[in-house]
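If it is no trouble, can you show me the amino acids of a protein and the C-alpha cells describing how it folds?
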Amino acid sequence: MLTILGLGPGHPDDITRRAWATLEQATAVYLRTREHPCVPHLPMRGFTSFDDVYDATADFEQIYATISVRVLDAAQAGDVVYAVPGDPMIAEAAVQRLLRAAPDAGITTQIISGVSFIEPTLAALKIDPIAGLQIHDAISIAAMHHPPLNPDQPALLAQVYSRALASDLKLTLMNQYPDEFEVTLVHGAGTDEAQVERLPLYAIDRSDHIRYLTALYIPALGGYSSFESFQEIIAHLRAPEGCPWDREQTHLSLRRYLLEETYEVLEALDAEDAPALAEELGDLLLQIVLHAQIATEEGEFRMADILSTVGRKMIRRHPHVWGETVVDGSGAVVRNWEAIKAAEKGDRKAESLLDGVSLELPALFRALRLTEKAAKPGFDWANADDVLAKVREELDEVLTAQDDAHRAEEMGDLLFVIANWARKLNIDPETALRAANAKFTRRFRYVEAQAAAQGQPLSAFTLDQMDAWWNAAKGAGL
C-alpha cells in the first residue's frame, strides 16, 4: 500500500488528525523535502527525504521521475507513506506520476488530504477565489514566452522558490501585464513567518524574502483586457437582447468592413502611428471575432477551431522551432514552409501555381503576388535591367496605341510590368504607391491651405502659383 498524505502549509497544528495518526503508525516514511516547518514536530520514528535529488539536478522533470521510481520501488517491498507539503493533489507533479504508475506496478494507493498553500494564501490576501481565481505553477509559466492567463481574472502562481525563477517569471508575465503593475508576493503562508509583500511586477525578483514557500498573486488587469471578455461583448451584441444591426449581419454582409479595416491598419502602419495601429488592429479583430460568432451560431465552427487550426499550422510549419530541422536563414524557412504547405494539401493540390493568389487583392498587389508565384519555378527575368527594357517596350506600346481600348490594355501591361520591376528591385509596389499617395495628399493640402490663407478658393489661382506652393511644400519636406 502506498499512502500519499499532505503535511499542510507549514504549521504543525494544520496537519489533519488522520495524517498525524498515519505518520504515528507508519514504518516507512518518505518526505519530498525536509525543508518544511512542521517536519521537526512530526510523530514518526524516522524518515527518508529527497532533498539530495533536488541538490543533484535542476531538471524538475528528472527530479519528479527519480522520486516516483524510488517511492514505487519502496512500496513494492511493503507499506510506504509519501508525505508532501500542503495537499497531495495540488502542485505535486511527482504525486501525479505515482498515481499513473502505481496500478501498472500492482500497488494500491490512498490519498490523505491536507490543507494546501491556497487556503492560508487566500487568508493572507483576504480574497475569495469564487470570482474566478486562476491557479498555475510558476515553474511552468516561467518557461513560457506568453502567460496562459486571462488578464480579466486574478491569478495565483505557486512555487516561486527563488529569485532566479522570479526573474524568468516576470519576463513571461510582462508579455501581458504592464511593467509597473502592482502584484503581491506571499511568503510562508500558513507559517509563523508569513509575510505579504506588494510591489511592481518588474521588481519581484528583487525581493529578499523569496524562498520555497513563496507564491505570487496577480490581481485582475481589468478594463476588458482579455480575449474572452471581447468574445462575450460580441456574443452579447448578437444575442436576442443585443444590437439589431449586429444581429442582421452575415459573413457576406461584413465583407466590405473586413477590407476597410484592413486598409485602415495599413494606413496606421504607413503613418508609423502606434496608438492608431492599436485602435485599428482592434477594429480588425472585431471583424474576425464577429465572423467567429456568426459561425458559432450557424454551427459552422467556433473560435476554438480557428485558434487550434492556426496554432497547429504554425507548429507544423516551423519544424526548426518545434522539431529537429536545422535552417541556415530565412530563405530556408520559406522553402520549408512552401514544401510543408504543399504536402499538407495532398489531394487538394492546386491546378495552377497562381490559384492561391486571391482575386480580391488590390490590383497592384495582386500583380506582385502573381509574378512572385510565377518566378518560383524560374519563369522570371534574370535581373532588374531586363525588366526595365520591358517597361520601356510597354511604354512605347501605350504611346503608339491606335484607340482607347488598345491604349487601356497597354496601360494595364505597363502597370503590370512596373509591379514586376519593383519586385526585382525589392520594392513592394503597393506600399510604395501608398506612400506616394500620402505624399501627394500632404503637399496638395499645403497648397489648399495657402489659398485659404488668402481667403480665396484654390480655383482662383493660376497653375504657376499652385506649382510654386507645391514646390514650397516639397522644400519643407512634406
